[in-house]
């Protein structure tokens, strides 16, 4: 089924929850803005799990076109005769079936998607599918009715704001898109709350405090533009669970964390880890060839 699994340990911020509910009551798409790994997708999933609502996520890419997102014409054979029919795209299909949707990192879409996306974001208007997207007007028979039973969410590292914060991989949005959205900032948990989440999931563990400190060093570097990736709470949980499984901190660190970063960034990540953990870390040559740093 499409209803996300509820995490009993997950806690919403009071202000965050109030703003989400207000936006949905006003029939505004919710745009969650925050750095990589801060939990934007988790907010969407846990909100829908709490309400037991069906929900799906799609990851926006520049390669997505109107056929994939909205509708396409396909050929099929019926009783020996070739006929054409409309096939719903991801956005149209979820709206027709009252499934809530999150478009992850929607600023990755190509510019030619913008006008059709803006039409889709008109939550209270019926729209018509044309040969190349959506329209509020026209005589097409393919009408997609506005519905109060679907919520639309989006996420972005910057929300189309300028990249002065150092977040990577976003383009600026035009004003007409931003006007349609309720934009809610999301950030990493504070250290105390994140440690509590780790303890609820894993029990008391001597590595938890140091792991969270390491993750925050990586996050700060990411926010300043020093590296291109960050670490989520899930990343830290995976690292500690893998450490318990293999019994080797160095192996767990290399397999679950270091390998995710670009080769030229790994020296900084290793330095952050050593600063936080104060251990003798062994990194294989294949991950950090000495020739790169000579």
Radius of gyration: 22 Å
Ranges with pLDDT <50 over ≥5 residues?
163-169
Helix percent band: 25-40%
Which H/E pattern describes the elements? HEHEHEEHEHEEEEHEHHHHH
- The number of distinct β-strands equals 10
Oligomer: single chain
Distance between the termini: 53 Å
Q: Which structural category do the helix and sheet elements fall into?
A: alpha/beta
**Mean of residue pLDDT?**
87
Strand order, biggest sheet? 2-5-9-1-10
Number of separate helices: 11
What is the percentage of strand-forming residues? 15-25%
The coarse overall form would be elongated
Largest sheet: 5 strands, parallel
Q: How is this structure best summarized?
A:
The protein has 294 residues and is α/β, with parallel strands linked by helices. Helices cover 37% and strands 16% of the residues.
Descriptive report:
The chain is α/β, with parallel strands linked by helices. Helices cover 37% and strands 16% of the residues. It contains eleven helices and ten strands. It has helices at residues 14-25, 40-51, 66-69, 90-96, 114-120, 175-179, 191-202, 208-223, 233-246, 249-256, 266-277; strands at residues 30-33, 55-59, 71-78, 81-88, 100-104, 127-130, 133-135, 143-144, 152-156, 182-185. The longest helix has 16 residues, at 208-223. Residues 163-169 have low confidence and may be disordered.
